[in-house]
């Protein structure tokens, strides 16, 4: 028994902000951002909530899968930027969709979030506990950025992607790799909200995302190729058997480095960071929906999904589409 993806969906906020737009509110340029990251624009949520974006993505995925919201057994939401601390994004989404029979909870594994949620769904399905699971990954990171930190805020965007998964005899997830290194957590960090405990002295003010870009870069280029290779071997395949590699969209130079290390042409690495920037847990499912809707996947194709980011965390899965 395998866990197969039966439908995908995605949603981006209406407001698109180019690098040139950003150069009007901070000291940066299209040339700097594009040459170092490949990012040309990002969508920022001004009117939309994350619940609305994920609901839109989820509805498309459910429609393609031919499944009604009330048939869902489970909703797994991957996010680090839910609309509220309580209730979770997944419970808000359950209410929005009317998925009354689903159990719903969130997973926070930052940019590996969608991979970890998909891999969690895979375990529930293979053990037979649930049959119809909605996996969403989405973020509104713009509300958590330090807009005075130009080296970090220009990289990120908002949006959501979704996949509906269920059991299948032939196609689906063939192997999965997961990893974490909490000892390196401070290289990509967002501290908690202010402590309101009246007995605690020296309360800290609200903090925003901070990043040691070079350390994150080194981590990514070392870890991702190894995780991908391990997952491919575990699936009983070779790198040449893989038709498409859908990597977390953090930086084109990271993707180029992985392509070089794996000796696979860049043509097998579709990207959307030019238009979307880094959407953390939303990045892989949005890209997956793009390749799915644009007819870039044929039944039986082998694809790799891979995520990496804060925690530190990383994950890769090989699927037979
Ligand atoms: N516009 C213009 N100049 C900028 C800038 C911006 N947006 N951000 C930083 N700079 C400047 C810096 O101030 C610095 O200037 P200085 O040399 O005069 O001090 C210079 O550019 C180089 O900064 P540096 O931080 O050394 O750049 P870098 O080459 O390491 O690139 C990143 C920075 C963030 C693009 C790069 O480290 C990176 O992509 N890391 C991975 C981050 C990532 O993917 N995170 C998410 C993972 S999930």
Fold and architecture overview:
32% of the residues lie in helices and 24% in strands. The protein is of the alpha/beta class. The longest helix is centred in the last third of the chain and has 22 residues, at 213-234. The protein contains ten helices and 13 strands. α3 (50-65) crosses α4 and α7 (213-234) runs parallel beside α8. The mean pLDDT is 96. Residues 28, 32-33, 36-37, 111, 150-151, 154-155, 211, 213-214, 216-217, 250-251, 278, 309 line the site of coenzyme A. Coenzyme A (COA) is lined by residues 28, 32-33, 36-37, 111, 150-151, 154-155, 211, 213-214, 216-217, 250-251, 278, 309.
In short:
With 321 residues, the protein is α/β, with parallel strands linked by helices. The protein contains 10 helices and 13 strands.
What characteristic shape results from the CA principal axes? globular
Low-confidence stretches: none
Bound compounds, please? Answer: coenzyme A
Number of helices: 10
Estimated helix fraction? 25-40%
Sketch the topology as an H/E string, one letter per element. Answer: EEHHEHEHEHEHEEEEHEHHHEE
Strand content: 15-25%
The side-by-side strand order for the widest beta sheet comes to: 1-7-6-4-5
Radius of gyration: 19 Å
Tell how many strands the DSSP assignment holds: 13
For the largest beta-sheet, the strand count, sense and barrel status come to: 5 strands, mixed
What is the residue-averaged pLDDT? 96
Spatial separation of the terminal alpha carbons: 14 Å
Structural class: alpha/beta
